[in-house]
Design brief:
The protein is of the alpha/beta class. It has 4 domains: 127 residues, Rossmann fold; 153 residues, P-loop containing nucleotide triphosphate hydrolases (Rossmann fold), CATH 3.40.50.300; 84 residues, Helicase, Ruva Protein, domain 3 (Orthogonal Bundle), CATH 1.10.8.60; 40 residues, Arc Repressor Mutant, subunit A (Orthogonal Bundle), CATH 1.10.10. The protein has a 5-stranded parallel beta sheet, sandwiched between helices. It has a 5-stranded parallel beta sheet with strand order 7-10-13-6-14. Strands 8-9 form a two-stranded antiparallel sheet. The radius of gyration is 34 Å and the shape is elongated. The model has no long low-confidence stretch (mean pLDDT 90). The structure holds adenosine-5'-triphosphate and magnesium ion. Magnesium ion binds next to helix 7.
């Protein structure tokens, strides 16, 4: 059965039998069906490499099967067998992407050679697909930037544990890079060719989460119109990333625990057990120990998922990484925006003092905005959002002391503004005489 799986579709049982025998002889795995419905079922259940189908059949015909396959399994080549009278349709199918057609009875020698080409084509298509996907993932995988001791420690941990099977939990505030670390763990490991399946437990509505994770059989509930593979299934052989695992409700926690213990699942609406084998990486910005105490998180589940814990520090706790990140993002966005920009020391100073509640994500957004807004060749504080500027103003007296007369003139202007320009009132507010006020207005040329 080493050459591949061929699905044969023909309403004439004898024709199926003959072809089937020939292909078995040629070391193919054969799936037989005598109508299109049967063929569709087989397509669901088997990993079919090539379809050989009769064109004219009662009920749905070969052309309809071909349309279904083009739509749903575009990588499976279809070869038509057709009676002499329907050559036109077969030619039509060829122009729409069918692999080949034979007039019945076919030259079996030729059929076998075409078949092996079809199998080869499918194999290549799949290979190209995986390579393309992998390339896209690798090139879109950003580096984790950092040189502070805290980050170096994380790099070290990633390197040590990446190929292990143990569950990992990544803890940290929003935007600190938890997902990035999860991806680095997967794509740096020997599982990199297997799936990385990320589920955001906070983003999926509660009532959908279970079917999302476990999948379901057709008809498992109203609306389950076809079978659906769950995320556990999908991640099998690779990594399952449960983002914001602290948001799981208790009933789903219990089910997850079972899966982790038994390493098998049942789809909703089915009692067939399916083996699943994935590495679990979870992330949270909650203190799960505290959630356990308040009864919102299962203790036994916490033990299971935090075999290895990675704690990602806040950006403000690793200030030395800021210049590194800034220059990375200035580069990235300058290339995108086709600009050449440098960052003023003033801005770098502001960044070092800022508290970064949104951590690296916020820094990235701030840099994107600044690069887009910059007109000259330097990024200045003018290109920063409001909260950075007010921060700067608040701290200004510390850096540059004002002279007494600057302070006085500011006070006079403020008093006049508050009193809508009424000088008597303003003088009273300032605790000086009207005469004294007039003198100052004259000195400072205030109208
Ligand atoms: N050390 C880092 N080096 C480079 N980019 C980083 C780093 N940390 C975070 N980022 C970037 O910051 C953004 C947020 O990171 P990520 O999504 O991994 O954070 P998170 O911790 O999962 O946040 P949340 O809890 O909000 O989901 C991403 O664009 C990511 O590429
Ligand atoms: Mg995240």
């Amino acid at each position: 059965m080493g050459n591949g799986t061929v699905l044969i579709v023909d309403d004439e049982p004898n024709a199926v039998k003959v072809l089937s025998a020939i292909l078995l002889e040629a070391d193919y795995n054969v799936v037989e069906s005598i109508d299109v419905d049967m063929a569709l079922k087989a397509l669901h259940q088997e990993d079919v490499d090539v379809i050989i189908t009769d064109l004219r059949m009662p009920g749905r015909d070969g052309m309809q099967l071909f349309e279904y396959v083009t739509e749903n399994h575009p990588d499976i080549p279809v070869i038509f067998l057709t009676a002499y009278g329907s050559v036109d349709s077969a030619v039509h199918a060829i122009t729409h992407g069918a692999f080949y057609y034979f007039i019945k009875p076919p030259d079996y020698l030729k059929l076998k050679s075409i078949l092996s080409r079809a199998v080869e084509q499918r194999r290549l298509k799949r290979e190209i697909d995986t390579l393309r996907k992998r390339l896209a993932e690798e090139t879109s995988l950003p580096r984790i930037i950092g040189k502070t001791p805290q980050m170096l420690k994380i790099f070290n941990t990633i390197e040590t544990i990446k190929d292990s099977e143990s569950s990992v939990i990544i803890c940290g505030e929003t935007g600190t890079g938890k997902e990035l670390i999860a991806r680095a763990l997967h794509f740096g490991s020997d599982r990199r060719d297997r799936p990385f399946v990320a589920v955001n437990c906070a983003a999926i509505p509660r009532e959908l989460l279970e079917s999302e994770l476990f999948g379901y059989e057709k008809g498992a509930f109203t609306g389950a119109v076809s079978r659906r593979i769950g995320r556990f299934d999908e991640a099998s052989g690779g990594t399952l990333f449960l983002d914001e695992i602290g948001e799981l409700e208790l009933s789903v926690q219990a089910k997850l625990l079972r899966v982790l213990q038994e390493r098998e699942i049942e789809r909703l609406g089915s009692n067939r057990k399916i083996k699943v084998h994935f590495r679990l990486i979870s992330s949270t910005n909650r203190d799960l120990g505290r959630e356990v105490k308040t009864g919102n998180f299962r203790k036994d589940l916490l033990y299971r998922i935090n075999v290895i814990q990675i704690n990602v520090p806040l950006l403000k706790e690793r200030q030395d990484d800021i210049p590194l990140l800034v220059s990375e993002y200035v580069n990235e966005f300058c290339i995108r925006e086709k600009k050449v920009l440098t960052l003023s020391d003033e801005v770098m100073g502001i960044f070092q003092d800022y508290h970064w509640p949104g951590n690296v994500r916020q820094l990235r957004n701030v840099m994107e905005r600044a690069v887009v807004l910059s007109k000259g060749d330097t990024i200045t504080s003018r290109e920063l959002p409001e909260e950075f500027i007010s921060l700067k103003k608040r701290e200004e007296p510390l850096h540059s002391l004002k002279t007494l007369s600057e302070v006085e003139s500011e006070a006079v202007r403020n008093a006049l503004r508050v009193c809508n320009g009424n000088k008597s009132k303003a003088a009273r507010l300032l605790g000086i005489s009207r005469k004294a006020l007039y003198k100052r207005l004259k000195d400072w040329k205030i109208e």
